[in-house]
From TrEMBL:
It is an enzyme of class 1 (oxidoreductase). Keywords: Acetylation, Dioxygenase, Iron, Metal-binding, Mitochondrion, Oxidoreductase, Transit peptide. It comes from Caenorhabditis auriculariae. Gene3D superfamilies: Ribonuclease Z/Hydroxyacylglutathione hydrolase-like. This is Persulfide dioxygenase ETHE1, mitochondrial. Belongs to the metallo-beta-lactamase superfamily. Glyoxalase II family. Its EC number is 1.13.11.18. It catalyses: S-sulfanylglutathione + O2 + H2O = sulfite + glutathione + 2 H(+). It is found in: Mitochondrion. GO terms for cellular component: mitochondrion. Residues 203-224 are annotated as: Disordered.
Length: 224
C-alpha cells in the first residue's frame, strides 16, 4: 500500500532523548527518494517505520561528523534499505560508503543538499544546506544559543564557524537569531576562545564506545 502523499518536499525533525540528538528525514515528494541526517542506533526502528509509512526509499544516511555521544544508525538502516549509502566528511578520517568534501552536492530525487565544511567541534564537521527550503543542518557546529564543545576529539575553537543537539526544549533557530542572541557568538574572538577553553564539561558517557564505532560507520566491535 502506498504511503502518504505530499505536495511539497518532505521534512521531519525527530529526537533521540538519551543524547538529545536531532535526526532529520528529508524526502523528494515526486521520486520518493529520501535522506536521513544524524540517525541514532537506538531509534533506527522508529526511523525505518516512518520512512516506510511515507513510502520513501532511503538513498543516503548522512552524518554531520564522527559523533562522541551516540552510535550512528546508518548500519542498521542499511538492513532495511540495502541500497542506502552512508555519508561522512573525508576530513573526518572515518569510514563511509561516500566521503564528501566542501562544495559537493548530495542528490535525492529532484532535491539536493550542499556540503559545507564547518570544522571546529571536530576536524570533519560539515553542514548540509537545503537551499530550496532555506534550511541548514549544522550538527554540533552550531547549537541553539551555544556551539559544540572543542576540548577533545580534534576540537579547535579557533576554527569553529557556527543543530544537532539541544538541551532546553527549543526545536529550531535561525542564523539571524544566533548572530544576535547566541552568547558565545556575540563575544570577541579572544573572549570566545577563553570561554571554550574553560567549559570544564564531563566527557560524553558513550565516548569510548561511540567514537571508534562511528569511525567505522557505526559497526561495534564484537567482544566475544
Amino acid at each position: 500500500m502506498r504511503g502518504l502523499a505530499f505536495s511539497t518536499p518532505i521534512f521531519r525533525q525527530l529526537v533521540e532523548f538519551q543524547s538529545y540528538t536531532y535526526t532529520y528525514i528529508l524526502g523528494c515528494e515526486k521520486t520518493r527518494q529520501a535522506v536521513i541526517i544524524d540517525p541514532v542506533d537506538k531509534t533506527a526502528d522508529r526511523d525505518i517505520q516512518l520512512l516506510k509509512d511515507f513510502d520513501l526509499n532511503l538513498v543516503y544516511g548522512l552524518n554531520t561528523h564522527v559523533h562522541a555521544d551516540h552510535i550512528t544508525g546508518t548500519h542498521l538502516l542499511r538492513k532495511a534499505f540495502p541500497s542506502m549509502k552512508s555519508v561522512l566528511s573525508r576530513a573526518s578520517g572515518g569510514k563511509a560508503d561516500r566521503l564528501v568534501d566542501d562544495g559537493e552536492d548530495v542528490q535525492f530525487g529532484e532535491q539536493k543538499l550542499e556540503v559545507r565544511a564547518t570544522p571546529g567541534h571536530t576536524n570533519g564537521c560539515v553542514t548540509y544546506v537545503w537551499h530550496e527550503l532555506r534550511r541548514a543542518f549544522t550538527g554540533d557546529s552550531l547549537l541553539v544559543r551555544a556551539c559544540g564543545r572543542t576540548d577533545f576529539q580534534e576540537g579547535n575553537a579557533a576554527a569553529l564557524i557556527f543543530i544537532g543537539h539541544n538541551y532546553n526544549g527549543i526545536l529550531q533557530t535561525s542564523v539571524l537569531e544566533e548572530k544576535n542572541l547566541n552568547p558565545r557568538l556575540t563575544k570577541t574572538e579572544e573572549k570566545f576562545l577563553e570561554t571554550m577553553e574553560n567549559l570544564h564539561l564531563a566527557h560524553p558517557k558513550q565516548l569510548d564506545e561511540a567514537v571508534p564505532a562511528n569511525m567505522k560507520d557505526g559497526e561495534v566491535e564484537n567482544s566475544s
